[in-house]
Amino acid sequence: MTTQxxxxxxxxxxxxxxxxxxxxxxxxxxxxxxxxxxEIIFLTEGSGTHTTDTQxxxxxxxxxxxxxxxxxxxWNIETEPSGYVLIIKKQxxxxxxxxxxxxxxxxxxxxxxxxxxxxxLEPLFExxxxxxxxxxxxxxxxxxxLLKAILGKLLLSAKAEKASESNKVSDFQHFKELLNQENQLxxxxxxxxxxxxxxPQNLNAIxxxxxxxxxxxxxxxxxxxxxxxxxxxxxxxxxxxxxxxDFKDNSHFTKYFKRHxxxxxxxxxxxxx
Length: 273
Description:
Layout: E1 6-8, E2 17-21, E3 32-34, E4 37-52, E5 55-58, E6 63-67, E7 73-89, H1 90-95, H2 99-108, E8 113-114, H3 118-135, H4 140-157, H5 171-179, H6 189-195, H7 200-211, H8 215-233, H9 238-244, H10 250-261, H11 265-272
Parallel strand pairs: 1-3
Antiparallel strand pairs: 2-7, 4-5, 4-6, 4-7, 6-8
């Protein structure tokens, strides 16, 4: 193991969005992150598994996987795959003037695995791929329109009620995005409430309404998930992980981790490696 996870970038520096057929020679990959982009993988053929963070999914086409920029994922594919990979970089989202596309992407990012209607979705991927291969992103309205249709179809298949809500990104979604920002994770509700220009009490109320959890519970889940990733996929010491996750000392982190998992960090690492 290494102290640094591999970070892959499948795009050229000038690309803000990219689509290509899923490579048929992909079988097993090492755990890795992506370089500031959101990935949508649509598979129409293949078998095996896809692991996102610590959650393993069986590949049963037609199937769609999404991978956020902060997530670790890897493949263990057993038979020849077929489908498409759609990459959306942060630059595209920042530059996009269509607020509905941003809302659709924010909603879709909550679904790591979907089982869509391939009959209606596959033609959209085929057309988008053909358009991109012929013209790149030069035909922006065409690409944006096709992307919007794909996102809408995906959320329809997930029966996601939020797809038809207001274009405004909610405070809850902003809160989740703040948790996903690297090097800013902390176990303090007041810290995030301040960044959201609200009070801890109001942030708790928002979380209760959206997720039936307190803000503390949501933060705890995220911290434990990040701790597990670091324990599984790096050889950082428990003390280094404690510091990275903003705990005052190793002892505090160990007690916190054990309270949520019933294992010490070292025991968790030994059990799963």
